[in-house]
Specification:
Length: 280
Amino acid sequence: MRDKRMTAADVVAELSDGMTVGIGGWGSRRKPMALVRAILDSPVRDLTIVSYGGPDVGLLCAAGKVRRLVFGFVSLDSIPYDPWFQRVRQQGGIEVREFDEGMFYSGLLAASHRLPFLPIRAGLGSDVLRVNPDLKTVRSPYDDEELVAMPALSLDVALIHLNRADRHGNGQYLGPDPYFDDLFCMAAKRRFLSCERIVDTSELDGPPQSLLTNRMMVDGVVETPNGAHFTSCVPDYGRDEAFQRHYAKSASDEDLWPSFVDQFLSRGETGYQLAVQGMS
């Protein structure tokens, strides 16, 4: 079996301008933040980001990497909105396509099954159809019920973060929720998994359902300890609420933001982790 270990820089080297990049996790939970920070350090731009968004979206918007955002929400969980997302959306700085969370899921599922769309009731009778005028409805051939034809959310690249993985791409989550990281992988042409620790395959024990990815679903594995910070990666660590408040305060004030960038985002991943340790 192939050894798929690589670095975050190797992952980013596979990205190019204009790609559609899906980012796993949920809000401010188990986001592949080390990979996101590696994108910040790169010249890649004009990305379409597909995400149940959290600070991944905010940081990429702050760095001018996003041309278009496809999302179900963008939240920091304990803080309702990511400030950078709020600002760029209010200013019309990015194109947006907002879906109901269930519609978003159906779009990933359609892409993972290589289908052009899947029918779903979510969205009917709501403003989702008004703000997405290109969405179409279909009639069931069995009872003529009208349904939304949710288009596939096909991805060029998927980025996810799990607790453990082996060098072949078999990945395991140890927290309470898989989110939809497996669907992100199956919806993408290239799939990259960062993890807290790379272990031998024999150490990936536990409930079978915790083995979220198999080696056929992953093209590269990156070991990034504390790589989901400041989002949560339970049980390895919870969300760093103090840091998240510091991020949100800095992101809300254009005068404070340059200092945040200088302290945490301008010195690579090692510099970031050292700065976080210094803050605590």
